TrEMBL record:
PANTHER family: COBW DOMAIN-CONTAINING PROTEIN, COBW-RELATED. The keyword Transferase does not apply. Residues 245-330 form the CobW C-terminal domain. The keyword Hydrolase applies. This is G3E family GTPase. It comes from Paenibacillus eucommiae. Keywords: Chaperone, Hydrolase, Nucleotide-binding. Belongs to the SIMIBI class G3E GTPase family. ZNG1 subfamily. It catalyses: GTP + H2O = GDP + phosphate + H(+).
Amino acid sequence: MKIPVMVISGFLGSGKTTLLLRLLEETRRRGLQPGILMNELGKQDVDGLILDEHSDTAIEKLLDGCVCCSKKEELADCLKKLLGQKPDIVFIELTGVANPEEIADALTEPGLLGLVKLNQIITLLDAEHMLDYNSIFSSDKQLVRTLRRQMEVADLLIVNKTDLVTSRVLVKIEKAIRKHNEKAQIVYAKHSQIDVQSLLSAILPHAHSPLPVRSFRMVQAAPLIPDKEPRPNKDEALSYSRVQSITLPWKPAGDISPVRIEQFLHKWEAHILRAKGYVSFSKEQPIQLLQHAGKRTTWAPSSFTGDPYVVFIGMDLDQEQLAAEWSALLGLKPN
């Protein structure tokens, strides 16, 4: 029996992990065993740890991998390892700059035929920023093309964060969506809250086996190497070369507040698209989960127990300058 695969796509900070958490809650309610393959740009895991904190499903993590690459046979090997756990459904959460079409194509490779079937491609859109993407990334045609493909190949489009925009903006968003995808269902949501029951209604547990909590592996693939496609200028840089990530430790030499962190992110807003990680402001307070997307920063208590760090993802990041200013912010002496 083929294992259904649900692909979750969407640009950085659109709410993919929050949706995945809601799907995992529903799989637990239905007695289903999920397999999770998660794609992170950074070398340090954040989203996988969020799943650990909020889901009863045990997850093993292998980090710094990319499932969106030209070597589709490597993706097939990764999925085969995951399928060895005998899941009832596999969720693939893509990084924000991945083209879900490549994953859909990879599922039809000979090594996976007969093992999996594409159930659905879901793309989340950040209502607050979607209409600005064309202008923000106007100098990066490859990235604009990728973001459009995320819309074009979706079976379901979730316009998320609708509480942050007006009804007039939502009308413009729907027109923009229909320009690229005339058939997909459109759902409007706040905090990725949608009817997940209908998404999983046709998925049934394996009748031949009990359903204890088992350990599932977040599979590591090769570093991202985009498919080579003809481009007008052969020297034109691929989008992926401009989207970079850097992980910086959190070791403040003195007192520091969330306000100062937000001021730092605001200063770098022309380049930082996404920041996430774990920070601690005092021994008396729990470690905080930092989430930053667009121009908004949120904080939430976390049970994280490791060494705090923050992952920065951005366009054309001057990593040395960012690291130097981060150290200065934390009151650290330059090396």
